[in-house]
Amino acid sequence: MSERAASDALPLLPDQPAHSASSVLHHQFEDIEQQRDADNFGMWVFLATEMLFFGGVFTGYIIYRTLYYPGFVAGSHGLEANLGAAMTFVLLASSFTMAMAVHAAREGKRGMLVGFLTSTIILGIAFLALKFTEYIHKWHEQLVPGFNFHPALESLRGAPERSVELFMCFYFFMTGLHALHMIIGIGLLAVLAIVAWQGKIPRENYTRVEVSGLYWHFVDIIWIYLFPLLYLIGGRYQ
Amino acid sequence: MSTAVAEVPVQSQVHYLNANYGIKSWLFTTDHKRIALLYLGSITLMFFIGGAAAVLMRLHLIEPAGALVQPETYNKLFTMHGVVMLFFFLVPSIPATLGNFLVPMMIGARDLAFPRLNLLSWYVYITGAAFTLYALISGGVDTGWTFYTPLSSHYVTTHVIATAMGVFITGFSSILTGLNFIVTIHKMRAPGLTWKRMQLFLWSIYATSVIFVLATPVIAIALFLLVLERIFHVGIFDPAIGGDPVLFQHLFWFYSHPAVYIMILPGMGVVSELVTCFSRKKPFGYIFIAYSSLAIAMISFFVWGHHMFVSGQSVYAGFIFSALSFAVAIPSAIKVFNWTATLYKGSISYDAPMLYALGFIGLFTMGGLTGLFLASMATDIHLHDTYFVIAHFHYIMVGGAVMAYLGGIHYWWPKITGRLYHDGWARFAAFVIFIGFNLTFFPQYMLGYLGMPRRYAVYPAEFQVLNVMSSAGASILGVGYLIPFVYLLWSIRYGPIAGSNPWQSTGLEWKTPSPPPTENFEVPPVITGEPYGYAEPEHARV
Q1: Is residue B195 packed enough to be buried (19+ CB in 10 Å), middle (13-18) or exposed (0-12)?
Q2: A29: which chain B residues are within 8 Å (Cβ-Cβ)?
Q3: In whole angstroms, how far apart are CA A158 and each of A80, A114, A151, A236?
Q4: Which of A11, A34, A146 is nearest residue B232 as measured by Cβ atoms?
Q5: Burial class (CB in 10 A: 0-12, 13-18, 19+), B315
Q6: Residue of A220, B75, B90, B381 with fewest CB within 10 Å of its CB?
């Protein structure tokens, strides 16, 4: 801010020319750069909150995994790692298209922006479809705590039923919370795609795309931790 | 603060209060000052609801067998008192009212970075409050404000879900407020306003916001898991179905201990402003007061285990948590010593806000020192869950946070409304509150030390004298809180015009008319010097 002080000794009044792009610049900011800084920083702070939000569940998961090791191994083993890998692939691909969308917005290429946003949305929906398929499989295996939990003997793999149930609780809660974030993200991107289609995302102010991209990548990163924690570790010890 | 703003008119014709009228202009406002007033109204309502529960409790405890209500009702009363006062009054009290009003003004900005988010946070708060009030009206909840499992998840049949959802939802309003403050303080300071030229209130609000953002999500997740457990009967925390109740306590206190600092840090910021202004001196050790706020915020994340010395936590963990809890005393003491050193040889005037600030320093010190008894593992075994604990945290929360809140409201009232309240009444109320407070809570230290446990609707006859003293004090305290309510409302209409700077303060927020215009400053300020220029002759009392 002290640099700003030097370069910006005469702050702009609301009726001065810099506000000609008034639809873009909100009244509380001095200039577009300050607004962009604030928007980006705000999203980072929000992601810090999100990290602690997921952190609570991750902590619980790790503690219970230590306490009820056999049940968690059996639970992990019962998940379909191939399906999980497919979801990971789809999600990483969506991260790529999202990054390209931000690039397109920075370059001011409207068609490219709309295209990449749409493909990100499609990949996100594909992820949710795979996730939902897996949920249905779990329902048929009667592994849904609270609604339908009567596991067959082989899905317990000799572990106590209670601790497998606890694993499935965490599985549904963590992936469900992640899926909720995906749905919110898809909603955000859908709005962006429409606004971009109408040509209302100017090159000078693509912050909305950038900020949504940050969110999208964060949700991906959560999955990058969920995948090994839930699907991969433990299965081999059987 | 020396600034480039020269002439300040006494009262501008158009200001934020009369810029437009009508209920819509308030409910859809994005002006941080109006949102601050929306919060002020709502938390005042919650304060009186929580206070009513406390009054009923104290009346009940006049007789050893209980004078007023059934034991089940008593359980609901202390739960609602705790939930309403902590989550719906103390947490938003100073940040959401004074913070919302003052942060943009103190940094010379037109508004917060995200005004619409700010309005959203108020609606989120109202939604959470509605859930909790619904639980209150439809029969209450009796788990205690801590929602400990498996009591809350399995045994009780009251409205745990609605209350927990209320707290869960209102947590997001704290997060949004904290996020807004962090971004605003980082990115929107006026030209020349470097970090070390910021007023001390801003430092404490900044430290509070960090806790808002990093701690609140954890209680959100804990309460959400609790609600899931209650709805679907899955064993996350209930040992009978495979869960671990101590995990709930860990997650709960990971938020709720830092939350104590959410409540007290803004109060410390207010007191730093008051002590400086009414001693006409630069704060002694500005940088130490500023950094100690950050230190308190940081250490606060690592002390939650001191609530769990008797919860089956390992003795080594207890040892570390105990040592870290002692460490919080260091930055807290730095603040107290710096305030007293600021007073030393100052030109002190005992206006009403200053009386609250002095009350804060004494009561907070006492609450803080008794906290050390509870942070020591050996004495905590004796004092755990007794009235000693209640007295300790009320000295911090009521003697500290509420005193600072009232001091802040009295100090900035002329800025908020443009009017002066009656000084004599204000000083009188400050004394009534101080006396009532001590009479209420000092006997509780003794009760706790003698072994009276908290949360019981009945008690042995030998504790009656002290309980009656406490109840008598509570009625004085209650009257003490009603007096400011009356004369402050009166002053809005009949009080004399305040002028832009009735306290001759050097703060940036006083360099604009009272009430301020919607844009806060008619000419955007440029800051050229330190925030507290009291010692410089040209800024001495005019």
Answers
A1: middle
A2: 113, 188
A3: 19, 52, 12, 15
A4: A146
A5: exposed
A6: B381
User: What is the distance between the alpha carbons of residues B176 and B209, in angstroms, rounded to a whole number?
Assistant: 9
Q: Measured between CB atoms, which of A34, A64, A145 is closest to B232?
A: A145
Chain A environment of B183 (Cβ under 8 Å): 38, 41-42, 45
User: Domain residues of chain A, as ranges?
Assistant: 42-237
* Integer Cα distance of A57 and A166 in angstroms: 13
CB atoms A48 and B213 under 8 Å? yes
Please check whether residue B520 lies inside any domain of the structure.
Answer: yes
- Please give the residue of chain B at the shortest CA–CA distance from A160: B242
Flag whether B311 is in a domain.
yes
Using a CB-CB cut-off of 8 Å, the residues of chain A touching B179 are: 42, 45-46, 49
Residue B284 belongs to what domain range?
A: 26-539
Residues in chain B closer than 8 A to A28 (CB atoms):
104, 109-113, 115, 188
**Please, where are the H alpha helices in chain A?**
2-7, 32-67, 69-78, 81-107, 110-140, 153-156, 161-197, 207-226
Q: Report ipTM for this prediction.
A: 0.89
The single residue listed with the structure tokens 């802040």 is: B408
The mean pLDDT values, 10 residues at a time, for chain B of 542 residues are: 48 80 91 96 96 95 93 94 96 96 95 95 97 92 91 88 95 96 95 94 97 94 91 83 86 93 95 95 93 95 93 90 94 96 92 96 95 92 94 95 97 95 96 97 96 94 95 96 95 92 92 91 89 65 44
Confirm whether B176 is domain-assigned: yes
Other C-beta atoms closer than 10 Å to the C-beta of B522 total: 16
Taking the Cβ of residue A2 and every Cβ of chain B, the question of whether any pair is shorter than 8 Å is answered with: yes
Number of domains in chain B: 1
Write the DSSP symbol of residue B346: -
CATH number of B530's domain: 1.20.210.10
